[in-house]
Write a structure and sequence with these properties.
The structure holds 2 protein chains of 2 kinds.
Chain A (H helix, E strand, L loop, with lengths): L1 H8 L10 H16 L12 H20 L1 H5 L8 H26 L5 H9 L17 H18 L8 H29 L3 H20 L11 H6 L7 H19 L9 E3 L4 E3 L5 H11 L3 H14 L1 H13 L13
Chain B lengths: L10 H19 L8 H25 L2 H7 L9 H4 L5 H24 L5 H26 L3 H15 L16 H18 L25 H16 L6
The chains are: A mainly alpha, B mainly alpha.
Chain lengths: ~350, ~240
């Protein structure tokens, strides 16, 4: 691989600071690898800004997985059938698992999970704003699966080809599970839509509330997106926000028809000329407000996360103390109290 | 299963074992989003899912799983009082799991070795339960032999739940297991784990007038009614609906 080769020929001096000639060689090797669609691996040289961008993005993604457990866990204890309860518990468990893969991917960039969690708890790193909306009825579980996971997949499938190897590989596995969740959400809504009039109304209400926030998940319009251009150049990102949003709308329209539900946008119609659907204006003021912390659940989500972390501190301390006492001990052969 | 057929399934025993699994699964599900560390989000959900799977098989032997889970009144549930106890702190959850999984592993190993109606389920479930017990044992060791705080919390939890452990060995109609022998092995196993964790075996009674066969007879503790209210509310709000 090009970068490793460059490192062999231009090694960083022992005092750590590479001289300018070496940096230029590294940069060239990096640029060449990215241009050739090669993967950048953890031990490869990479520009500081590339590393920082990845840490920011992967951390935000990991945080979204663990905060995203909350709105759905809200319904585990009330799931209306044992089959649905099993599906929902497995889904929330998958999200914890995704959090684990992603924090591990971030660790390959030299940032620990603890450090990232501290930043999340201190409000210095973000998670997807979509989870700042409440799950008010059972149908919201279906709407999250169909729309939120659907939007996430649209965003994430291109990340399986992201230039950073560990992130790309984590995304392959995550996308497989997410598409399963998306189908389960669709199937849940279908059962409601074809159920009693009350169930149908519940499904329509949930779709009405989740549609616009789902469209906001693709981020601000291209001309206002802060990080997009550089990320596309680095092949961390492969498609623009607006492009992905339009793709998502095109996928959802026929699915809504099959569900027997409507999407809450009177301007939504097929544009023959463009080969895409036109849709109404997105309320970016709402987006900015939720982003700033003024969404319906921002406070609640972060408070619960901090509380779980703080209340669990004694458990983590006990595990660390036990491990320290039993270094080299599997823990199964007996504890000798020191 | 075909050799025995549904007609020969002892309904009382299927409900007892099925309700244990259903109720404990529900309690563990309450941890989602609240666990002390991400690995435990995965582990507790995993145990909850295994138990829910067992509950669905067992309740289906006794009737319609959803009717049984969602439409019975509190007094018709046959689970142990132990499994309905609120999660408390992580130490309480672990103590409850250690007591229950040790019992379940011994019971299911015996049922799996037999030819009765529960043998096929028990043969599959005993492998899952062995993992649940290991998980509880490892945490009992970590908490008991971790810090002073964790030791004290674990001691309190083991003590608090001790009085619910005698009920496990009360006879259940249709459950063909040597309960007195199981009880002796349960005590031996739990004593061993607590000892290695630096904890002493609680001294209080394990059974008494308040609990002898109580959950198995449909007599539950106060928190159980609230748990069922939450669990059953949505299903009951839409009579006859499919989900």
């Amino acid at each position: 691989m090009a970068i490793a080769a460059a490192q062999r020929t231009a090694r960083t001096p022992a005092d750590g600071a590479p001289d300018t000639v070496d940096t230029a060689a590294y940069q060239h090797a990096f640029d060449t690898a990215v241009a050739a669609d090669e993967r950048i691996e953890p031990r490869d040289w990479m520009p500081d800004a590339y590393r920082a961008t990845l840490v920011r993005q992967i951390a935000q993604h990991a945080h979204s997985e663990i905060i995203g457990m909350q709105p759905e866990a809200n319904w585990i204890t009330r799931a209306p059938s044992l089959r649905r309860k099993a599906i929902l518990m497995a889904k929330v468990q998958d999200e914890a698992g995704h959090g684990l893969y992603l924090y591990s991917a971030a660790e390959t960039l030299g940032t620990s999970r603890d450090e990232l969690l501290d930043k999340l708890h201190a409000g210095r790193q973000k998670y997807s704003s979509i989870f700042n909306y409440p799950t008010l009825t059972w149908a919201d579980v279906g709407a999250i699966g169909w729309l939120v996971d659907g939007a996430a997949i649209t965003n994430q499938v291109p990340l399986c080809r992201c230039s950073y190897g560990p992130y790309a590989r984590a995304m392959v596995r995550i996308c497989k599970e997410e598409s399963f969740h998306q189908r389960q959400g669709y199937e849940l809504l279908l059962a409601l839509s074809k159920g009693t009039p009350e169930q149908h109304a519940m499904a329509q209400d949930a779709v009405n509330r989740w549609w616009w926030p789902s469209l906001m998940m693709f981020g601000p319009p291209d001309d206002e997106s802060q990080h997009s251009a550089q990320s596309m150049e680095w092949k961390i990102k492969r498609h623009s926000n607006d492009e992905l949003r339009r793709r998502f709308v095109d996928i959802c329209v026929p699915q809504a028809e099959s569900l027997g539900l409507t999407l809450p946008d009177p301007e939504l119609r097929w544009n023959e000329e463009q080969g895409h659907h036109d849709f109404g204006p997105i309320d970016w003021t709402e987006f900015q407000e939720v982003l700033k912390g003024n969404g319906p659940c921002n406070e609640q989500r972060i408070t619960q996360r901090r509380r779980a972390h703080d209340e669990g501190a004694w458990v983590r301390e006990a595990a660390a103390a036990y491990a320290a006492k039993h270094t080299g001990d599997t823990g199964e052969t007996g504890a000798t109290r020191a | 299963m075909t050799a025995t057929g549904p007609a020969t399934v002892p309904v009382t025993a299927a409900l007892a074992l099925g309700d244990d699994a259903l109720v404990l699964s529900h309690r563990l599900g309450e941890w989602a989003g609240h666990a002390p560390v991400l690995e435990e989000e995965v582990a507790l959900a995993n145990i909850a899912l295994d138990l829910l799977g067992q509950a669905r098989v067992l309740l289906s032997l006794a009737g319609d799983e959803d009717e049984l889970a969602y439409l019975r009144e509190e007094r018709a549930f046959r689970n142990l009082q132990l499994v309905e106890q609120p999660n408390g702190d992580f130490a309480h959850t672990i103590a409850r799991q250690l007591y229950f999984s040790t019992y379940q592993q011994l019971l299911y190993a015996e049922l799996a070795a037999g030819t009765g109606p529960f043998a096929p389920l028990a043969a599959k479930a005993v492998k899952e339960v062995a993992y649940h017990r290991d998980h509880a044992e490892l945490w009992t060791l970590r908490l008991g032999d971790g810090t002073e705080t964790s030791h004290e919390r674990m001691r309190l939890a083991c003590d608090a739940l001790w009085r619910f452990t005698g009920e496990m060995f009360q006879p259940v109609e249709g459950l063909d297991a040597g309960l007195p022998a199981l009880e002796a092995r349960w005590l031996e196993s739990v004593t061993d784990v607590l000892g290695r964790a630096g904890l002493t075996v609680p001294e209080g009674p394990r059974t008494g007038a308040w609990s002898a066969g109580a959950g198995r007879q449909g007599l539950h503790t106060e928190p159980f009614g609230r748990m069922l209210a939450e669990m059953q509310h949505l299903h009951r709000s839409h009579p006859g609906a499919s989900w």
